[in-house]
Amino acid sequence: MAFVTVRAGASSALKRVKFCSPACLSSAVTTSHYATAPATKKSGQKNIVLVEGVRTPFLLSGTKYNNLMPHDLQRAAFLSLLRKTGIPKESIEYIVSGSVIAEPTTCNVAREAALCAGFSDRTPCHTVTMACISSNQAITTVMGLISSGAIDVGMAGGVEFLSDVPIRLNRKLRKLLLSANKAKTPMQKLGLLAKFRPSMLVPELPSVSEFTTKEVMGHSGDRLAAAFGVSRREQDEYALRSHTLADRASKQGLLSDIVPFSVPGDSAPVSADNGIRVSTLDQMAKLKPAFIKPHGTVTAANSSFLTDGASAALIMSEEKALAMGFKPKAYLRSFVYVAQDPKDQLLLGPAYATPAVLAKEGLNMSDIDVFEYHEAFAGQILANMKAMDSDYFAKTYMGKPAKVGCPPMEKLNLWGGSLSLGHPFGATGIRLVTTVANRLIHENKQWGLTAACAAGGHGHAMIVERYPSK
Question: Which of 120, 124, 323, 348 is the most buried (most CB within 10 A)?
């Protein structure tokens, strides 16, 4: 048991709180086989289904995908989804992609990838951005279009390409160059030249910190782990678990959402993620803190890494899917988006979103068979577990009468997670939803839940229900 300090919001005072390690991190649990009839749709609402989800292999930035562009990866995911399902391009009525760091020449990457993939120029496409839950937003946007009756068939995508990010000219130099366009006389041009300084040649690198708080996410993760009493050892153990499970799932062929990608100029296609590293706790303990030095606990080994990759999902109304001869994988049920103070609760989105989505669907934590939570940092996910398992946190910061509890480890991220598989910001959400659907089928279970944190203090959660086998 540890005494820790947690702050609920920017205006609230710091309080000394007592948290216990959640029982779900070590408790055994038994579950029954999937035998319950699927939930019926609510009156007046359409059942919306996930037909299939795919992704490119997720690769460490600066490796095999180094010479590509974002639309290349998204295009590959779109085409892979078409090949895997056999659906004609003409049947796709709308495409939405999620992405975070935009390539300026293809800022609406959904549209450019679709055109390069051979979709009709009459197929509308747009791109959304919501940090690490961007492709979750793409999924729910397509769901909204289907629910409203605007479409019956949509494609959601997500892509991130961090091997080549936009690096801007110095702002002073940008202003000078823009002024040069208006200069007409030689004297005006010479006057601008006189304003030039060598310091203007220093470029502006993309910021890795939150705009409003100026804090790097890893620094926030370190503070969060400390606030909830998550030790360095616990973080390393969780990270090792993630890599070990991902390695096992990969070798057993369970990561069936991966579709090989042929990199131009390479003889053999890329067919697997390349960030999985099964190490030892002793080796991990040798790494120095990455953000808060020298006493921080977040390191390169217990953090997700910069990743390139893309994903895509085929989403339809149930009626349309059946009419076209498809066997859906899952129903996409209730979802929520939440937002908290980005300074002190930047990464606590899952702790808020999980009870909200369970209440919306009328379920309890014990009803869920499969959990897939985004792993930004090991400390982040363990802190969320402790928050969900704390009556004090529930009552004080969420206004709930009691804790919701947290996912048993026996049900959580059993095929690895973002720490091991990789985290292309814009593509992870579709991986989470597809993995839940695939695990429900593999484990013969009914209910799944995905949850993720995101920059800006955002969070998201969704309930997924396995489509009945009959």
Answer: 348
